[in-house]
Each structure stands twice: as structure tokens, then as C-alpha cells.
Design the sequence.
């Protein structure tokens, strides 16, 4: 960021905390950007002529006589097609060694879409993962997080979903990514030959935490450019929103705000909603779909971050390691996509809702049978069959390494049901059973 | 008018140095660049006023000019409020042209060009008071009364009244003269400050009439009364919003006001998309014709969230004064409370529990108290029934918003994660939930006369069946199927019949989604007959398979049109099944 000539330079900082500094200045606008000793900062509080700046990279080493200049604008991002394939930092500056981005300069964190100009999300977004497409179908314009423990391979799953999803653009917002994970994303995207449709905004753990606060707004501004101006299907990935919320807590703490639940700022719900609600289906066909990651502490979803997230997003996806098959699966019981009703059986095959429910119900019976077994009760023949079915079900449909079309998932579902159960045990509408049930040779019955 | 200059800014809280008198809750406009942003005064210290800006404060500078308006946040009331989608400050969202909600852009709430068919109801030289009906226009199918302005003091005489004919909302339709001889022109628009209750009625009796919602778990088990209040707390994913939408679709009210307060935009879009398509079962008209939506979704400015619930309530009270039955729904009041918390925080007030403001309970109580059934000056009645949802943090009901609401709301619909997980919808816990109206003698009397003799006792009896069933299930789970007496299995399965046939309801099924009272009564009597029947079986597996058949047949009854061919067929099969059982020797 370059300063212009004839700008007032202030050199008298009166107060410094770890994240903010204050000085007296005139003619400053709220949320305006400034440079403090060359470091980007933003106005967060004005009291008379006393201006408090949030210094994104932190205030280490800033002296009271450091140079402060105000830039006369709030944070912006240059948007154009040149963004494609680029890796940028939290300020929208390249970190991949390439040239600076040219394009229209847009303020980030702009206004929200008028609800009456939205369209009801109702386009299927396929990922090839049966745990998602079959059981928790995603819809363009939806917002949904992965709730995962830190030890789970959520970033790998996210990269898989991104590469397989039928999207025109994928925009990654990495917040507090470990450098290793950043390199993983970079390699995975490059190897897949998909770089031209991917844009990444990255804040790694090596960068100051407060910078993270800019990432979602940068990502959403870029997403709105492609989705609204170019009517593209944009998929936004945000990982990890828990670290974003932590950064919010740091700033609010330095500003002497009273914390609410779990030491989080009282505005956490609004802060998160402002980002997730950027997910939208425009009437002209463009859309922004947001898939986030919220890391949990030992699966605790009552913590303020996942709790508020759950109230905002349209469902949540849980990862779980299934010891029976030794793979990570999408948990069929705790995961939920609230918008799946808009597409399943409508844009996917007619038997989709019934097959999905039947499989989950049978799997629930298997869980009960397992409990019975563990408690030393005798198992019935039905229980035994349920147990066998559950293993096959996890292996062939729930595991995240599955990559098949929805029709194939449904066919697999019918195969499993036909293999382990009688027609009357699956509780599916007779017309579908007549049409799709597999006889012993694995062919559909006439 | 008083003017001022911005002195300080933090988030959406400004302090303003003023040059004249300023009132608490007065509205002012801050000029920034080329727009004027609306703000509300929330504290005054000397010549410094603190104000919350209803929009983004980006770019405001110290010294920016502020103009005060001399009035509190007020909205427009008049014909044309229905079928509209408003934002939290009553701007008409459909009239905003941009795709994005640009700040500082406001619209008229009422269309000035539409002409309405006016019929006078009063006559010249008639003495009238605030809220009295001067005339009536047709708004959709509703007789929309044009009333003496609510803020009119004392008694007035109608000195001129327009003849029947076509008028726009801004045309003068009457001239009133007060006791001092001053004359006031009246048109169809009136303005009212949203935070003040409209009190143009004679009195507010205890609610006693059942307000049907078409939902068995509410109407039968925990009835809502006309003019009553209720709340629905529940963790996320338990179906709060689906439940509210179902009530909005089937609620037996003349007017439905939906306040989407800090919730998902896509859910509001669903209402926008569906309501103009769906038919109101009672009138045959489109649902959107009786509905007005106030929407401040979670990404819209936080300060306007607080305003949105008051805007909804004020519109509800306005229609109540016309002698109409109004149902007001707010989803969710927790988001409103959070908005209060954010502001109290910035004002650096000492926090109460969970950092909410100390007066949270008082604010909630005050709001709920605006609901109610009222007797109007002309002897007619009107009502505002209010149902709010609460989103307790972590799904834990021991938190300030749930607790404060529980103190004032008369009905409690507890959504349970367990029921939601096992897909038993609506996930209302029948026995934890309550309706205080069941204890009202007035309600008992009303139900004896209008539903059936001994209705309230019947509800208690059926709730006992559920409780007994829960105990039996627990015992069976602990001791095992074989170790409990057979009667435990029978009692458990009887409660399953109640659960599957009366409690659960398919809000996606065309027939089952709306169950009229007549039908609810019929089915509850069928079910109680079964529950009262002493059954006998050889072993517990036979109990389960027998009751599964009962449940299946009765479910089919629920899914088929009432007392038509299919329904009767299943009923006959059911009767055979039961009589067959009776003939088996004990």
C-alpha cells in the first residue's frame, strides 16, 4: 500500500495496546483505512478527535512517534477476471509471486442482498460424496459448515468437495491455516489442474491473527463479483471459522467490551451471520454457496461458536471415523442439510427421499443392535442382518472417498437393501419397490 | 428543530452534541456524504445525546451534521399494509430497486396511488373517540376500518365525512372537531410510535376462546387462546421455524403478521415464494392476502432488529382495533434480545446475566403484555395473539431470554432435540409443554360449550397416558422385555398410539398438515377409547405387532380426507381389529 503525496502525516500516538493505537487526527471517516508505520490499520472508534485504530499486523515495536497516514477509504479489493488462479493475502495482495491484481476497486463488507431480490435456492449441487449428495444434499445458495474435531481431515475433505463440486469458481478463505495446510491446498489445486477456477485468500498461522478478520469480507466481495456480475455458480470455502471467531474475541477484548458466553463478544451471532448470509441464489442464476469449517472442542456443539453457527447456517455436516471400516465417514445421524427437500426427488431421481430415509432407518436399527450386542442381549436374525448391512453401508456409501453420481448411489442403496432385507422390512412405497428392487442376480425385476 | 454534530463513533453508536431540546427515543438523521442515515436516541447526558444508527456507520466523520425530527420511531398505518414485505423500519422491500440494500434509502410504507372503495360508517355530528370507526375500505377481502387517529385526545365531533367513493390513502375523508372547537382533517394514513402500545379499547378481559392452529399438539394438548401469548424455545434443528410457518399457514386468524427477526434470509424467501401460492383453507383466498411480513434477516442492520418486533406489534394492534383476530409471530425474540445486548454493551452499562441488559425481563414482559383480546368502544372484540420463538444458547433453557419469557408467556411449547432426532415431528414435548389457559375457568366453560363436555379432563387423562407410557418404556429399557409385567408393554404401546396418531403430524402432507378441531375431537375420542380398553395378550411381541396394526390404520385415517370413503374404510378395519381383540378370551 502506497501513500500519496500531500497527505497529513501524524506522528503523535497517545495510546498503544496489543491490537490498537490511538491518536488525535481530523477529518477521518469511520472504518477508514490508515497506515501506522507502514502497517495497515482501520478506524474502530472515534471520540472527538481521538481516533482508535485497529492495527491488523499487531503493534509490536510501534513507537509513539510512528508515522500515521489516513487513506481516505475503507478496505477495498480489486476485482476482475485476473483474480482467477491467484493466491492472495488478507489485504488482497498477491502472495504467489505474481503481478498485482488490476481491476475495479470495491469496498469490502458491502450491503446485503434485498431478500425480495433473492430466489429460493433449488438447484442441486453435486459433490460425488454419497454422505453428502445422498443423505445431506447441498443446494446452490446454501450455507453449511463442517463441524469437525481438530484431528479430523476436514481440510482434505473440503479440498475434495471443492474440486468435485459443479461450480464455476471456487474461492478459498483460509484463516489461521497452518503453513502445511496452505501448501496442501495449493498443491492439491495445482495437481488437479483446476487453478484457473480457484482464488485463494490466505491468512496462515504465521500471519497476525487480527488480519483474519478481513478474509471473509475479501472472499465474499470476490464471490459477489463473479456470482452477481458474471452470473456464475461460486463455491466459497471458509476454514476455519473458529479461528475467525477467536480473532473477533481478541479485538473485542482489547476494546474493553464485556464478553458474553464462552468469552465471545456479544455480537458473535451478527458477526457470523453477516458472513454466512452472503450465500445467495440470485434470480439471474448466479449463486454463492458457502461451505465452512468450524472446529469443535471434543465434539462440543454447545460452545458459543458452533452453537451460533448452527442457528445461522442451513444444516451442518459431521465427520466421524468409523472404526468398523477404518475410514472417515459423514455421520448420517448428526448431519443435516436443511435445504435438501428443495431438490431431492425433484431434481434427483424420484425414489431419492425414500431410499435415503430407509437406509438411515435401517442403519439406526443396526446401531440399536450393536448396543444390544454390547450389553449381552441375544440378537435376532434381523439384528444380525442389520449389523452386516451397516458395514456395507458405511463402506459403499458413507465413506468420504466415494465418488459416484446420485443415480449410482441410489442403485447401490437398492442393492444393499435387496441383499440384506425383505421387501416389507424396508418401508418404502410399493411403487418404488416394484420398480427398483434387485433380485438375486442383481438385475431389476421385471 | 434541534440540530447536532457527531462527537464520537463506535460501531453503530454515536454521541451527538445537540443545540436544543432532544427527547429519549427521538429519531434523528445523520448526514454522511450524500445520504441521510436514520438513528434513534437511546441516552441523553447534558447536551450530549447517544444514538444508535439503524445502518452501517462507515465513513461518518466527527462533526457531521445531525437533524432531529421531534418524534419517536413511528410507522404508517392504513390500507395497503397487507401482502407487503417490509424491512425492520417499514420500508417496502419490493419498492427498493437495487439488488442490494443500499443505506439511507427509505420508501413509503403505503402506496399513495391506489384508490380504495370507501364506505362511511359514522355520520355527521356523531361524537367519536380515538380508535372509533369512521368508515371502511376493502383491503383484499378484509373490511379495513378507517379510524379516528389513535393519538386524538378527548371527544370529537364528525363535522364532515366523505361520501362513499374512490379515494387514495392521502385523500381527506373526514374533518373532526375537538372540544375546543379546533378542526382536524383526517385521511386514511395515521402514524404511531411503535414503542407505545395502542390503547384505544375499553378493557382487556382474560382470554378464553380457543384459537385454532390446525395442529393437534397445540389445539388439543396445549391450547392457545385468542389474545393469548406463547413461546417456542428450542435448540437449532428442532423445527422452530417450520412450526411457526405451519402456524402462519393454518392459524385461524383474520390477519397474520410475521416478523422475521434476525433469522435466515432463505427462510423469508420461502414465505415470499409460498404464501402467494398457498390458499387459506377458510376463505379460499391466497395466504399472502391476509399476511404482512416484517423482515430483518440476520445480515440486516442489528439496530433495526429491535425496531422490527415493535413494528410488527404496532401493525397487529392497528388491525385489532378494527375488531379483527390478529396472529403475530416473531422468529426469533432471542435475536432481538441480542441486539439489546450489543447496544447495552456499547453504552457501557453494567451487565446482567450473560451480559444481557438488566432490564431484559422488563422489556420482554412489556412487549408480551401488548398482546390480548380487547373490548372496543363499539362493543366489538379484537385480539392480538402473540407467539415468539426463542433460540436458547447451547439449547439450554437456563438462560436469560428463555427464563424471562417463561415468566410472561402463558403457553410454552418446548421443542425437544430427542423428538427431533427420532423424526417425531412436530418435536413439541407434550408433557413438558403447558398452556395456562387449560387452568382458566373461562376456558373450561368455553370448551364445555363449544368442544365437548369434560374436554379439559379428557386432555389431562390423555396426558397421563403419555406419562405412564414413558415410565413403562424406561422400565422396559432397564429391566428388559421379559422382566416386566405384560401390562407395561400394553401401557407403553397405548402411549405410542397417542404419540403416532395425535402428537405427530405431517406438516408436508396435504391432509394431515391442517387438522380442524372437529377432526381433532373425533380422533382423540377414538384414541382414548383404545387407551381405556383393557387388552390382554399372550406375550409382548404380540402386543407390539397388534398396536403397530392399530397405529398403521389410524395413521391412514389421518392421511385421508375426514369421514370420506377412504377414511371410513380404514375406520371400519380399525373397528374390526379392535372388536376381534375383544373377543379373544383373557
Sequence:
Amino acid at each position: 500500500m502506497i501513500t500519496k503525496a500531500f497527505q497529513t502525516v501524524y506522528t503523535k500516538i497517545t495510546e498503544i495496546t496489543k491490537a490498537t493505537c490511538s491518536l488525535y487526527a481530523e477529518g477521518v471517516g469511520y472504518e477508514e483505512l490508515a497506515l501506522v508505520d507502514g502497517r495497515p490499520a482501520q478506524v474502530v472508534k472515534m471520540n472527538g478527535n481521538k481516533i482508535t485504530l485497529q492495527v491488523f499486523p499487531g503493534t509490536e515495536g510501534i513507537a509513539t512517534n510512528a508515522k500515521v497516514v489516513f487513506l481516505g477509504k475503507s478496505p477495498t479489493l480489486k476485482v476482475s477476471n485476473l483474480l482467477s488462479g491467484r493466491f492472495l493475502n488478507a489485504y488482497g495482495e498477491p502472495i504467489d509471486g505474481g503481478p498485482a491484481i488490476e481491476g475495479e476497486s470495491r469496498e469490502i463488507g458491502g450491503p446485503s442482498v434485498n431478500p425480495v431480490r433473492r430466489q429460493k435456492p433449488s438447484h442441486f449441487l453435486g459433490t460425488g460424496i454419497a454422505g453428502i449428495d445422498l443423505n445431506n444434499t447441498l443446494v446452490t445458495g446454501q450455507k453449511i459448515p463442517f463441524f469437525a474435531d481438530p484431528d479430523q481431515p476436514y481440510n482434505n475433505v473440503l479440498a475434495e468437495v471443492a474440486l468435485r463440486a459443479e461450480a464455476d469458481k471456487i474461492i478459498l478463505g483460509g484463516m489461521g491455516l497452518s503453513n502445511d495446510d496452505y501448501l496442501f491446498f495449493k498443491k492439491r489445486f495445482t495437481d488437479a489442474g483446476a487453478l484457473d477456477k480457484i482464488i485463494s485468500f490466505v491468512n496462515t498461522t504465521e500471519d497476525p491473527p487480527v488480519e483474519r478478520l478481513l478474509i471473509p469480507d475479501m472472499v465474499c466481495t470476490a464471490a459477489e463479483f463473479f456470482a452477481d456480475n458474471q452470473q456464475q455458480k461460486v463455491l466459497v470455502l471458509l476454514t476455519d471459522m473458529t479461528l475467525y471467531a477467536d480473532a473477533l474475541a481478541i479485538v473485542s477484548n482489547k476494546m474493553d467490551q464485556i464478553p458474553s458466553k464462552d468469552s465471545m463478544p456479544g455480537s458473535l451471532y451478527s458477526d457470523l451471520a453477516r458472513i454466512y448470509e452472503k450465500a445467495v441464489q440470485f434470480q439471474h442464476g448466479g449463486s454463492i454457496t458457502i461451505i465452512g469449517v468450524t472446529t469443535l472442542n471434543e465434539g462440543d456443539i454447545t460452545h458459543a461458536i458452533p452453537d451460533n453457527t448452527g442457528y445461522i447456517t442451513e444444516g451442518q455436516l459431521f465427520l466421524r471415523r468409523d472404526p468398523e471400516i477404518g475410514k472417515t465417514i459423514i455421520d448420517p445421524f448428526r448431519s443435516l442439510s436443511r435445504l435438501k427437500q428443495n431438490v431431492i426427488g425433484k431434481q434427483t431421481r424420484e425414489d431419492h427421499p425414500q431410499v435415503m430415509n430407509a437406509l438411515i432407518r435401517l442403519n439406526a436399527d443396526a446401531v440399536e443392535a450393536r448396543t444390544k450386542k454390547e450389553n449381552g442381549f441375544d440378537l435376532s436374525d434381523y439384528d444380525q442382518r442389520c449389523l452386516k448391512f451397516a458395514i456395507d453401508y458405511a463402506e459403499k456409501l458413507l465413506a468420504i472417498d466415494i465418488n459416484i453420481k446420485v443415480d449410482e448411489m441410489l442403485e447401490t442403496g437398492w442393492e444393499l437393501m435387496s441383499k440384506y432385507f425383505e421387501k416389507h422390512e424396508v418401508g418404502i412405497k410399493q411403487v418404488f419397490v416394484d420398480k427398483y428392487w434387485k433380485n438375486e442376480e442383481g438385475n431389476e425385476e421385471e | 428543530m434541534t440540530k447536532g454534530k457527531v462527537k464520537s463513533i463506535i460501531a453503530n453508536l454515536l454521541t451527538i452534541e445537540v443545540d436544543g431540546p432532544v427527547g429519549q427515543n427521538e429519531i434523528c438523521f445523520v448526514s454522511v456524504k450524500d445520504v441521510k442515515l436514520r438513528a434513534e436516541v437511546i441516552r441523553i447526558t447534558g447536551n450530549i445525546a447517544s444514538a444508535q444508527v439503524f445502518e452501517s456507520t462507515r465513513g461518518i466523520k466527527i462533526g457531521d451534521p445531525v437533524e432531529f425530527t421531534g418524534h419517536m420511531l413511528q410507522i404508517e398505518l392504513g390500507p395497503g399494509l397487507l401482502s407487503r414485505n417490509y424491512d425492520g423500519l417499514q420500508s417496502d422491500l419490493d419498492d427498493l430497486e437495487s439488488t442490494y440494500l443500499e443505506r439511507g434509502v427509505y420508501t413509503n410504507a403505503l402506496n399513495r396511488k391506489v384508490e380504495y372503495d370507501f364506505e362511511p360508517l359514522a355520520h355527521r355530528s356523531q361524537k367519536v373517540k380515538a380508535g372509533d370507526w369512521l368508515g371502511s375500505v376493502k383491503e383484499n377481502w378484509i373490511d379495513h376500518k378507517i379510524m379516528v387517529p389513535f393519538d386524538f385526545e378527548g371527544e370529537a365531533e364528525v363535522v364532515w365525512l366523505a361520501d362513499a367513493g374512490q379515494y387514495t390513502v392521502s385523500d381527506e375523508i373526514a374533518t373532526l372537531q375537538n372540544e375546543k372547537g379546533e378542526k382536524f382533517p383526517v385521511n386514511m394514513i395515521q402514524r404511531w410510535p411503535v414503542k407505545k402500545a395502542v390503547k384505544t379499547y375499553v378493557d382487556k378481559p382474560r382470554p378464553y376462546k380457543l384459537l385454532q392452529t390446525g395442529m393437534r399438539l397445540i389445539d388439543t394438548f396445549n391450547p392457545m387462546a385468542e389474545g393469548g401469548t406463547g413461546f417456542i424455545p428450542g435448540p437449532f434443528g428442532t423445527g422452530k421455524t417450520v412450526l411457526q410457518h405451519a402456524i402462519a399457514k393454518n392459524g385461524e386468524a383474520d390477519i397474520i403478521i410475521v416478523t422475521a427477526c434476525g433469522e435466515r434470509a432463505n427462510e423469508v424467501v420461502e414465505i415470499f415464494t409460498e404464501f402467494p401460492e398457498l390458499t387459506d383453507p377458510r376463505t379460499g383466498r391466497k395466504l399472502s392476502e391476509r399476511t404482512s411480513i416484517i423482515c430483518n434477516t440476520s445480515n440486516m442492520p442489528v439496530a433495526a432488529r429491535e425496531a422490527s418486533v415493535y413494528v410488527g406489534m404496532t401493525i397487529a394492534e392497528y388491525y385489532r382495533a378494527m375488531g379483527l383476530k390478529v396472529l403475530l409471530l416473531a422468529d426469533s425474540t432471542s435475536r432481538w434480545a441480542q441486539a439489546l445486548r450489543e447496544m447495552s454493551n456499547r453504552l457501557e452499562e453494567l451487565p446482567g446475566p450473560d451480559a444481557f441488559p438488566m432490564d431484559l425481563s422488563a422489556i420482554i414482559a412489556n412487549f408480551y403484555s401488548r398482546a390480548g383480546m380487547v373490548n372496543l368502544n363499539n362493543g366489538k372484540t379484537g385480539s392480538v395473539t402473540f407467539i415468539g420463538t426463542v433460540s436458547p444458547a447451547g439449547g439450554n433453557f437456563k438462560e436469560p431470554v428463555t427464563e424471562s419469557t417463561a415468566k410472561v408467556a402463558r403457553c410454552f411449547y418446548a421443542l425437544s432435540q430427542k423428538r427431533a432426532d427420532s423424526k417425531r415431528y412436530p418435536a413439541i414435548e407434550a408433557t413438558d409443554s403447558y398452556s395456562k389457559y387449560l387452568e382458566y375457568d373461562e376456558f373450561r366453560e368455553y370448551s364445555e360449550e363449544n368442544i365437548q363436555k369434560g374436554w379439559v379432563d379428557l386432555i389431562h387423562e390423555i396426558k397421563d397416558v403419555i406419562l405412564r407410557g414413558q415410565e413403562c418404556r424406561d422400565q422396559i429399557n432397564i429391566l428388559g422385555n421379559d422382566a416386566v409385567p405384560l401390562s407395561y408393554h400394553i401401557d407403553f404401546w397405548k402411549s405410542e398410539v397417542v404419540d403416532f396418531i395425535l402428537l405427530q403430524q405431517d406438516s408436508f402432507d396435504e391432509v394431515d398438515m391442517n387438522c380442524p378441531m372437529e377432526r381433532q375431537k373425533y380422533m382423540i375420542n377414538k384414541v382414548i377409547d383404545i387407551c381405556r380398553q383393557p387388552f390382554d395378550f399372550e406375550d409382548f411381541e404380540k402386543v407390539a405387532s397388534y398396536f403397530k396394526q392399530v397405529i398403521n390404520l389410524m395413521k391412514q385415517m389421518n392421511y385421508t380426507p375426514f369421514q370420506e370413503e377412504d377414511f371410513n374404510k380404514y375406520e371400519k378395519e380399525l373397528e374390526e381389529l379392535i372388536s376381534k381383540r375383544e373377543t379373544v378370551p383373557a
